[in-house]
Design a protein that fits this description.
- It is built from ten helices and 15 strands.
- By secondary structure, the protein is α/β, with parallel strands linked by helices.
- The strands form four sheets. It has a nine-stranded mixed β-sheet. A two-stranded antiparallel sheet has the order 1-2.
- Helix 4 packs across helix 5 and helix 6 runs parallel beside helix 7.
- The relative contact order is 0.14.
Length: 393
């Protein structure tokens, strides 16, 4: 029996497909039946930005910039209706959503269709009318980028340098949501931590708590240049223990703080894969995560690596459901969830290996390769929403 889509979405029913794939696995075979179980759909509505932060991918990638056209956006939302477990549409990617000329139209369209909506933004282009409408529409989650407290914004060179403007937008948004008597949007702040600002983390957490922020996500720096390698703090050069202990104490006062690892650990877990995320680039290409959305160079503990954009299909040509349940994308998610990929980062052969020079393929034949990914090591983090106590964080 076919469960009506609206009912299945409300009840959390799993939409099965009639596809079945058989994969060879060492001396055996494994049968995988893909499901329409995407939980978070990230849409890069634009790859442009109004800021030029030194540490951002955008300053170093090779890709063309552009805005998603309206017809493609509507098609993606139509396709999203096919996923009964979908929890949220999220405006993200590597760009500033508010620079899109139809940004507010897109916000209204998502909420009109009944989807939960989240987004990441530097906040600097958000007008008072926009902030009021976010609260009125019940936008569910907004993560602001902010790498220092406003009084110390001149002390950093790598992060977002508009802390005062961003803090002002947060303060007004919290005020307007209180006026509407709701707790939406839930407000988060993403901080990229380096040697320049790590000592400020407790001060920043207290500042955000006083501002009415709900959550603080801390990520390490992913170096784009050899010079930026000098700014990382996950190489043993910094004692983070007293900083972390202070952050734990502050969190007890009601600020949800999500911290990365500050050293290389054996455990691997990809938040994008664990939460069944797909990311649609502005031109319709579907990537599994931010890392494979664009092409650029990164530095992994001093090693220069070329990351090439990887797409499992384009939503202009196929539906999201077709792409999500395709053989290649299904196998990719299966290998990730079962950790069936090597570990380049701590491999004793890394200095003599050609596979680590790009993200194209690993020594087990997986493509693209996640074996050298700092997201999978929980050293680098992006906002992947979690729903607890009736709201998103």
């Amino acid at each position: 029996m076919k469960i009506p889509l609206a009912y299945s979405r409300r009840q959390g029913a799993v939409e099965l497909t009639d596809k079945e794939y058989t994969f060879s696995l060492w001396d055996g075979k494994v049968i995988v039946r893909p499901k329409l179980d995407m939980k978070y759909l990230y849409i890069e509505i634009t790859s442009r930005c109004n800021l030029k932060c030194e540490m951002c991918f955008k300053q170093y990638w090779e890709d063309e910039e552009g805005d998603m056209d309206w017809e493609l956006f509507l098609k993606i939302l139509d396709d999203a209706e096919e996923f009964p477990e979908l929890k949220m549409i999220y405006f993200g990617g590597i760009g500033e959503p508010t620079v899109h000329p139809r940004f507010m139209d897109m916000v209204r369209e998502v909420k009109k269709r009944g989807f939960a909506l989240g987004m990441s933004s530097n906040g600097t282009l958000m007008t008072d009318d926009m902030l009021r409408e976010f609260a009125k529409l019940g936008v569910d989650l907004i993560y602001f980028s902010m790498d220092t407290v406003p009084t110390a914004q001149n002390a950093i060179t790598l992060g977002h340098l508009a802390a005062a403007a961003t803090a002002d937008r947060i303060k007004r948004l919290v005020k307007y949501r209180d006026e509407y008597g709701t707790h939406r949007p839930s407000v988060g702040v993403e901080v990229v931590v380096t040697k320049e600002n790590y000592k400020q983390l407790p001060e920043m957490a207290r500042f955000l708590l006083d501002l009415g922020v709900d959550s603080m996500l801390v990520s390490n720096l992913l170096p784009m240049t050899g010079e930026q390698m000098e700014d990382i703090i996950y190489d043993g050069s910094v004692d983070m223990k007293p900083i972390l202990e202070e952050l734990y104490r502050i969190a007890h006062n009601g600020l949800y703080i999500k911290l990365p690892y500050f050293e290389l650990k054996t455990e691997r877990s990809c938040d994008f894969d664990e939460n069944n995320v797909a990311v649609v680039r502005w031109d319709g290409e579907v990537a599994p995560c931010y890392r494979f959305l664009h092409s650029y160079y990164e530095y992994i503990f001093g090693r220069k690596k070329k990351v090439n954009a990887y797409s499992f299909g384009n939503v202009r040509e196929k539906s999201l459901a077709e792409i999500w349940t395709s053989e290649k994308y299904t196998w990719f998610r299966f290998t990730m969830k079962n950790y069936m990929y090597p570990s380049c980062t701590d491999c004793p052969l890394v200095d003599a290996c050609d596979f680590v020079k790009t993200s194209d393929i690993d020594c087990w034949g997986n493509e693209p390769s996640c074996a050298d990914c700092l997201w999978a090591r929980r050293i680098v983090q992006c906002p992947i929403p979690q729903h607890n106590f009736g709201k998103f964080y």
